[in-house]
UniProtKB/TrEMBL annotation:
It catalyses: tRNA(Phe) + L-phenylalanine + ATP = L-phenylalanyl-tRNA(Phe) + AMP + diphosphate + H(+). Belongs to the class-II aminoacyl-tRNA synthetase family. Phe-tRNA synthetase alpha subunit type 1 subfamily. It is found in: Cytoplasm. GO terms for molecular function: ATP binding; magnesium ion binding; phenylalanine-tRNA ligase activity; tRNA binding. This is Phenylalanine--tRNA ligase alpha subunit. Mg(2+) binds at E262. The gene is pheS. Gene3D superfamilies: Bira Bifunctional Protein, Domain 2 (3.30.930.10). Tetramer of two alpha and two beta subunits. It holds the Pfam family tRNA-synt_2d.
Length: 335
């Protein structure tokens, strides 16, 4: 690691010393950008033996500081522009164009993938009722699984304003904790066969850190028909993972528990040499089918909930979920 860092430092010194000041931004991105070789090497320090970490880390930080100083010196060598007469024949400056947010890009990619598999896109309100968010998904008031959801509850006057369709349900209002309520809404209005995805924003009342956010994006998937089995679920999961993260990524289903599916699974992926937990899934619980006015003796189905933030972080090597909502243009302009 030390040899690689020193070799990179020698290469950078030589290139910066002979560079034209006009190339400052190109060199800054090359050597100090988020996707730079130096950043890649610094990210590998965590995998070094403990006795090598301190030395490599100190050397890497010194090189990073020296590179920043050399690049600043290069920028200062740029000559100040001389005042010239205005030439109306010179083309005007084009303002920088905006671009789609990385979460929107991932969502669009997933929607395109699922449309190719025959799925439709469904939507539901972010202000939900307790009935749809919990009760009809087999999570009654006294169910221990409710402890896993720290919920933003709303005053009835506020909730009814944003969700007038809930009038008469005698239900509390909340910011939905998952996109699963779209399942119930769709089942009540459509007959099988059903193939839908429901991407959208969800909310949890929890402390925020590099891997947790109180506002995040989820994509719910639901397929209901005659004769649907776990084999169909596994095939769809494999297709999603390999299309988004790469054909070399392996998947496995690990038994788990969710009140709205039975059996339930956690999906793990073999990604960059490690097994990582990706999402939850399972066969739709018969009670949930009944609550959606579907006969569980005739139809079966599977459901899954994929974190759009999570898969975007894996795809692009992002290590802090808070960057998505930070409004940091330096971060957003890299996508």
């Amino acid at each position: 690691m030390e040899d690689k860092l020193k070799q990179l430092w020698l290469q950078a010194q030589s290139e910066i010393a002979s560079a034209n000041p006009a190339n400052y931004e190109i060199l800054r991105t090359k050597y100090l950008g988020r996707k730079s070789e130096l950043n890649h090497l610094l990210g590998q320090i965590a995998d070094l033996p403990i006795e090598q970490k301190a030395v490599a880390g100190q050397l890497g930080n010194q090189i990073k500081q020296q590179l920043a100083e050399r690049l600043n010196q290069l920028a200062e060598r740029q000559p100040k522009a001389e005042v010239e007469l205005f030439d109306p024949t010179i083309p005007g400056l084009h303002p920088p164009l905006g671009r789609l947010h990385p979460l929107t890009q991932t969502t669009n990619e997933l929607v395109k993938l699922f449309r190719g598999l025959g799925f439709s896109v469904a939507d539901g309100p972010e202000v939900e009722t307790e009935e749809n968010n919990f009760n009809l998904l087999n999570i009654p008031d006294n169910h221990p699984a409710r402890d896993a959801w720290d919920t933003f509850w709303l005053k009835e006057s506020v909730g009814s304003k944003f969700n007038p369709s809930a009038d008469g349900q005698n239900s509390k209002f909340l910011l939905r904790t998952h996109t699963s309520p779209v399942q119930i809404r769709y089942m009540k209005e459509h007959r099988p066969p059903i193939r839908i995805i429901a991407p959208g924003r969800t909310f949890r009342y929890e402390a925020e850190d590099a891997t947790h956010s109180s506002v995040f994006y989820q994509l719910e998937g639901l397929l209901i028909d005659r004769g649907i089995t776990v084999a169909h679920l596994k095939a769809v999961i494999d297709t999603i993972v390999k299309d988004i993260l790469g054909s070399e990524v392996k998947t496995r289903l690990r038994p788990s528990f969710f009140p709205f599916t039975e059996p339930s699974f956690e999906v793990d992926i073999w990604f960059k040499g490690h097994w990582l937990e990706l999402m939850g899934c399972g066969m739709v619980h018969p009670t949930v089918l009944k609550n959606g006015d579907i006969d569980p003796t005739e139809f079966s189905g599977f459901a899954f909930g994929l974190g759009i933030d999570r898969i975007t972080m894996l795809k692009h090597g992002i290590d802090d979920i808070r960057l998505f909502l930070s409004g940091n243009l330096d971060f957003l302009e890299e996508f």
